[in-house]
Design brief:
By secondary structure, the chain is an alpha+beta fold. It contains 7 helices and 7 strands.
Amino acid sequence: MAERPFGRCPPGVPIDQGYIFANVPFPVWDEAGAGWKAVPSNGLVTSHECACEDYQRAINAGFGDKANKIDLQVAPIQSASRYSEEAIALILAGEHLERFFVHGGKSLPDSVVRIDEETAIPAYVLAGLKPITVLAPWQWRQLVIHLTVSQWHQKPEKILHPDLLKGTKQ
């Protein structure tokens, strides 16, 4: 097994839930039978912030071996232009738990996160990638709610504190 390099977060560029990185190497099975290959795509970190903090704490403490063993969940992102208006409306309404809509801005167009293709990516790999943007606080709260609802298949009001549900609209 190849040794993992010692990664470092660039100064001021943390890895956290809601951060979007360019060229995340998602593993995809080669249909020709050649095995797994890495296909770069934009990716949204979906791991809970505690997992992200574990990586940063290990780096800050000089525990490279520990840091290099930490994987974070990342979901690939597609341009929303690949989806029909009807599909986007259903995603925005929360009817597709395996998809999450990201409202675009200067650095990223409107996009759709494919939650069902979430993949464990070594944190040190993310540390070496270019961050594109981070979700706005209101959209991050929507992501937390969406991830929780998609995991537990319950209405948000049944499983989340009312304070968390406030301020989730733009």
